[in-house]
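Appendix C reproduces, verbatim, an entry submitted by the partner laboratory led by Prof. M.T., so that reviewers can inspect both the input and the predicted structure.
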Amino acid sequence: MAIIDAVNLFFSYDEQEDSRIMPEFKAALDCVNISVSKGEFVAVLGHNGSGKSTFAKHINAILTPTGGSMTVEGMDTRDEKNLIPIRRKAGMVFQNPDNQLVASLVEDDVAFAPENLGVEPKEIRRRVDEALETVGMSEYKRHEVHRLSGGQKQRVAIAGVLAMQPDILILDEPTAMLDPRGRAEVMDTVARLNREKNMTVVLITHYMEEAAACGRVIVMNDGRVIADGAPGEIFSQVELLRSVGLEVPQVTQIAYEIRKEGIDFPADVLTVEDFTDAFIKCAGGAGK
């Protein structure tokens, strides 16, 4: 069974009107079908207004469907009795860590959510220590939050979610406000959680290189899914992505330009290493 399952998911921010009947009201999500299995690392791409963040907020029931359904570990997000269980299973990290951090000290902030869930103090201590170790922030547990860098703050925000022991980690553009070093810190942490703890990760991002490192990429446009597949498969569709205002990783773009010149070069190049290997093979073949 899918851990996340959206079936004909429809959502309009104007709940008084149905945009399928009255076209002037545009649907934020229009018949979205997405199924995610446990342990997947999924990136969701799209320009502003494509519906990607609206979809993310449906996973932990910040928003609930106008039509269709969203289930998380078999629980219907529209059923109010499922609200707390779903949010325990699906933790969300937002774009700006300053909006998610609530305490002055790092360890107090990480303890905040389990305390509010009524977890006993000894278990809270264990969860806080484990979560901070997981994100590489143990040495900062007595530090003041406001003195941390952007990347460190975001890792603390992730630790706060991990202290709730979720099965799913949803990240809504978590690196958008960070410098390259901070982005790398956060993405390394998330990749390790997926790899070592088999945590299901849904990453909303506009950085193509981040998406290329995921196991699966979903592209949304105007509230609909227009592409869904492995990164190499998705990013090789350069013209499709351009048509909806998205770019591709730089090396993929270079490979695309090489192919346009009639040279037999792989289309699914995603990294510098991929490109280097392909170039050497291509050059070797040309020299024979």
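The first strand starts at residue 4 and ends at 11. Additional entries are available on request from the coordinating office.
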